Amino acid sequence: MAIRVLISGGGTGGHLYPALNIAAALRRADPTCELLLVGAERGIERRILPTAGYSYRLLATEPLRRSQPWQNWRILATMPRVFAGLAEAFRTLDPHVVVGTGGYASAPALAYAIAARKPTVLQEQNAFPGLVTRLLASHATHIHLGFPEAADHLKPGRATQVQAYGNPVANSGASAVPSDFDWPAGRVLLTTGGSQGARGLNELLLRELSGATRWPDGVTMVWISGPDHHEAISAAVRGTAWADRIRVVPYVNALGQSLNRVSLAISRAGAMSTSELAAAGVPALLVPLPTSAEDHQRSNALSLAGAGAARVFEQHSAVAGDLWHSVLELLDSESSLQAMAGAMRSRGRPDAADRIAADVLELARSEAGVRHADD
To answer: Which CATH class is domain 4-169+350-374?
Structure first.
């Protein structure tokens, strides 16, 4: 009997890529495993899943608008369509296990699975867990944490098993999606704001570059601007003194598999971004998103800074020149850079996806055995 697993997650890359990486690990461990990925029509998965190589279904799921609560009527309005789609998906696949990677795109499938008494596995990326994980922790069969600190904020059920294997980053030899970028030779300074880009981080870096009087030797900056900011950032960079040393790109698929080319990163502190940096041992200058839910990016950043793997800069209160000073200081000192790289590597969990997949398969086989015995 083939094992059947439904994986739900998306909205942003921070929730979609864990789902894809778990799917890839399941396929490596059991090529006969039947997989269905479920996401949101409005999420990044609309662009990524058609070429990812998995069966998938996109639902009309709406996000929770915390800053505009009067708009949350949309959740109720779309609920009949969402649950009709889920009923068909569950009837067609009849999954042995349902895995959710958090965010609004995962919530309906997880709720449906719990109501249907299906074994459920939650994968939580952040040091401070998201709303979906906090609400459903007591009903989950297993919970997998990206940061061990997250356990302090959860109330799992009596029978819930909680593991801190780390976040499921892409396997370097078998990425969930192919890379699409030709990296420059020599040392690379990476700037990334996550899958959607980050206007605040982009603006901070432009201010830093406008006051920079020196560029680190032999270094090319790869600036992942985000699709919505690419044109504006490209134009702004052309007006700087360092335009010939900066490559601005809107997005890079499968970034994690290429991070071994990066010497230092300037990054938001999203869970998957920081986990990919940790798995590759890339030291980072982290600028947490100040409006992240429950300030979870700051929690992620401080966890890594406390380990000596990163430095943290506040977007709105950073002293002009401090960020670029740290760039120069680290890229000028191989010993400092390597010390941070070692600390970052110590927090990396490159085998997390495979360990989570093994857990999911064991749970699914147990469920399949129970069903077979009942037949």
So the answer is: alpha beta
